[in-house]
Amino acid sequence: xxxxxxxxxxxxxxxxxxxxxxxxxxxxxxxxxxxxxxxxxxxxxxxxxxxxxxxxxxxxxxxxxxxxxxxxxxxxxxxxxxxxxxxxxxxxxxxxxxxxxxxxxxxxxxxxxxxxxxxxxxxxxxxxxxxxxxxxxxxxxxxxxxxxxxxxxxxxxxxxxxxxxxxxxxxxxxxxxxxxxxxxxxxxxxxxxxxxxxxxxxxxxxxxxxxxxxxxxxxxxxxxxxxxxxxxxx
Length: 234
What we know:
The chain is mainly beta. It is 9% helix and 54% strand. The protein is elongated, with a radius of gyration of 22 Å.
C-alpha cells in the first residue's frame, strides 16, 4: 500500500510540472562516473536538482580530490543533450542521455577532452559529520606562497580540530576557489604533516613556539618547495 501511495504521489508531482519541467525532472538526482588519464582514475559525482519551471541547478564532487559541492555554473538539457559548465575548475561537459534516463555518455573538457560516462548513483548512506571538539592551538586559517619561478602561488590551509583529531582543507586561490579536503593530518609536538592523497600533495612543517608561523616544505609530483604559512587573523 505504501508503494502504491508513493507511486500516486510521484505521478501527481509530475503532473504539476510544466512539459519542460517534466523532461528536466527525469534527469534530477545523483550521477557518478570516472575520468581516466595517464593510468589514474578521478571519480566524479554530479548532483542535479530540477525546479518546477524546468530550470536545473547542480553541484559536483571530485571524490578522490576531496572537493565537494563545486558549483556548476550553467546546466541545460535540450532533448537528450546535457550541457554543463563549471567555471571554478574551467571545465565543461557535453553528454547524451539514453532513452530510459539511466546513463549519460559524454565528454569532459578541462584543457583536453576526456570520456566521461555517467550512471545513476545508488542512494548513499548519510555521511557522518565529524563531531566538533575544543579548538586546538593551531585551529584557523594559515596562508603562505610558493615561489614557482616565473610565478608565485598562494596556498591556504584551514585547520579544524574534531573529536576524531585534526582536519584540514587546502585552497590555491590563484588557480581556483575550490577547497580540497586533506586525507590525513598528523601532529607530533611542533611537527605537522598534511597530506592530500588525491592530488599527491604533502606539506610537512614545524610550528613556531609563538604559534604564529609554520615553516615547512610543500611536495607534489616529485617537486619540493619551501612554504612558510602564517596564521590569518580575523
